[in-house]
Amino acid sequence: MAHGELRGVVALDGPSGTGKSSAARRLAASLGARYLDTGAMYRAVTLAVLRAGVDPTDAEGVAAVARAAGLAQGDDPEHSTTTLAGVDVGADIRGPEVTCAVSPVSAVPSVRELLVAHQRAIIAAALEQAGGIVVEGRDIGTVVVPDAALKVYLTADAEARAQRRAKQDSDSGRAATVDATLADVRRRDAYDSTRAVSPLRPAEDAVELDTTSLDLAGTLAALLELVERRGLRVVAVGG
């Protein structure tokens, strides 16, 4: 695989509805880099837990399911895949049942330890093969890659995030209302920011980017400017 234009790791953290996933994929694709959606990995484990009939708050049971789940996460920004035991679960992990259960599952310390190790292995391989990777989640700059070349923490008003999430769900054929989504956004924010292990928070050296009034193109432009400013974009010169 030929090296792209990005050199190093761009870590994008922040709560849901900030445009993080769409911007991360687009940024990676535009720079010929790899892309890792760590949230999809936690959602996949949550789906496995629910299918196994295990209580999401049962830490030991959740950990056992996570170890046996056979999770694989692709890093192609044009076609990001999430599989369990070789079966694509990309659509299933976005359902409301998984959304409601993912916070307690992702708070289990042994699950985070397992997935962080997996994520670091994917990142190391991507850096060797493509030269750069855009990684998005909730603890990338603070835990997964604390030495990332660029850390960005995306924020947005809760109401704006709820509207985006509800639209995404509706566009994907999932029933959603803004009020119900707003309640879910606030619930997950509170849970994720107060959990004992890897709470949702910006890294001390992260650049904060408020996307409340930005569309995808505006968010991407801001991220590309930060990449350029850090000198992380290397454009090959033809000869």
Descriptive terms for the model:
ATP-binding; Rossmann fold; 49% helix; Cytidylate kinase; dCMP kinase activity; 9 helices; three-stranded antiparallel β-sheet; alpha/beta; 239 residues; ATP binding; five-stranded parallel β-sheet
How does the SSE layout of this entry go?
Elements: E1 8-13, H1 20-30, E2 34-37, H2 38-51, H3 59-68, E3 71-73, E4 82-84, E5 87-88, H4 96-106, H5 109-130, E6 132-137, H6 140-144, E7 150-155, H7 158-171, H8 178-194, E8 207-210, H9 216-229
Parallel strand pairs: 1-6, 1-7, 2-6, 7-8
Antiparallel strand pairs: 3-4, 4-5
pLDDT averaged over residues:
92
CATH homologous superfamily classification of the largest domain: P-loop containing nucleotide triphosphate hydrolases
Order of helices and strands: EHEHHEEEHHEHEHHEH
Helix content: 40-55%
- The assigned structural class equals alpha/beta
Provide the domain count: 2
Stated plainly, the CATH topology of the largest domain is called Rossmann fold
